[in-house]
Amino acid sequence: MKPDPSFYQMPKEFWANIRLISEAVGYTVRNKNSIKVPKITEITDAYIAKGLNVNRIIDASGSPTVFGKQLLNYFQYRANILNTKVKDFLMDADEAKIEFDKLYKEISPPAHLIPMNKQKGDKKQAAFLTGIVNMIIYKELGGKSFAHDPRNLTLVTKNSFPIRTLARRVDGCYPGIIDPKVIWEIKEYYYTTTFGSRVADGVYESLLDGMELEELEENEKIKVEHYLIVDSKFTWWECGRSYLCRLIDMLNMGYVDVILFGKEVIEELPKLILEW
After folding, report:
1. Structure confidence at residue 85 (pLDDT)
2. For position 122, what pLDDT does the model report?
3. d(Cα 68, Cα 193) in Å, to the nearest integer?
4. Who's near 244: CB < 8 A, 6+ residues apart?
5. What's the Cα-to-Cα distance from 10 to each of 109, 114, 210, 215, 228, rounded to whole Å?
6. What are the pLDDT digits (tens) for 70-121?
7. Amino acid 199: pLDDT
8. Please, what is the angle between helix 12-25 and helix 66-81, to 10°?
9. Cα(167)–Cα(207) distance, integer angstroms
10. Any idea what DSSP says for residue 168?
């Protein structure tokens, strides 16, 4: 999934309002298992309650201004893409294992491309989503090298001299951790039972990476593609729908270039690799 051109990199104040409204009015419809689309009255009531000016959002007659309509259109887009597409892309562990096994049988990848998850006991399995990603890249690159498990910080250079070192280790990059064209992060939480702080932290870590890459592009004119790949129907949809909203926001703010949700990775990642 790529950003929607209608909303991609809107001004910072647009996203300030999107975040505030989402917090004040709510991201989801309670007891309906869906993403909320705020009404203009809910938005203005929330602003008035906070002592904020609503003149940029509604006109004297109470109708939405151009800016107000942009906000409403974005909320409609975000709800529609999550309720009708992302929800169906997300897999549980059994579904992910089926897709993993199909690819494993087809590709017969080297063992080092298939890491294990961090669970214990019966939940100790291959890291299905990471394995799927690694197998697809291995196949599509036809033997070209890529960093499938970087153990060092990503480095960007000019004239062989470091100019930026990212704050965090990422989950993969191409062609390598020095001067990558593409980096990716994988968030698979198949066996979690709640939406805990570790999952929330993962969202904000991706935001940090995106902000560093934005600064790199603005000041050094160097573009590094940033992918985010996530899965677990229970974790993200049943428990963390508000964080899915944050991911769609992050995508359209330009802090990630692509987000692949669950089984979307199987069809879309090969197309993306052609662009590399």
Report:
1. 94
2. 66
3. 38
4. 35, 82, 86, 236, 237
5. 42, 39, 16, 17, 20
6. 999 999 999 999 999 999 999 999 999 999 999 999 999 999 899 877 766 6
7. 77
8. 60
9. 12
10. S
Same domain, residue pair 170 and 68: no
Percent of the chain with pLDDT over 70: 96
pTM (2 decimals)?
A: 0.91
In whole angstroms, how far apart are CA 128 and each of 55, 86, 206? 50, 19, 20
Same structural domain, 97 and 85? no
Burial call 15-39: b when 16+ CB within 10 Å, e when fewer: bebbeebbebbebbeeeeeebbbbe
Amino acid at 32: K
Residue 46 lies in a domain: yes
Domain end point (choices 27, 57, 89): 89
Beta-carbon contacts of residue 161 (< 8 Å; ≥ 6 apart): none
Residues 110 and 191 in one domain: yes
Q: Which of 129, 138, 91, 93 is nearest to 111 (CA)?
A: 138
Tokens of 45: 């009531």
Task: Name residues whose C-beta falls within 8 Å of residue 215's C-beta, 6 or more positions apart in sequence.
Answer: none
- Which amino acid does the sequence have at 244? L
One domain for residues 48 and 97:
no
Domain residues for 24?
Answer: 12-89
Determine the Cα–Cα distance for residues 51 and 145; give it in Å rounded to an integer: 56
Count up the domains in the chain and report the number: 2
Q: Is residue 163 part of a domain?
A: yes
Beta bridge partners of 2: none
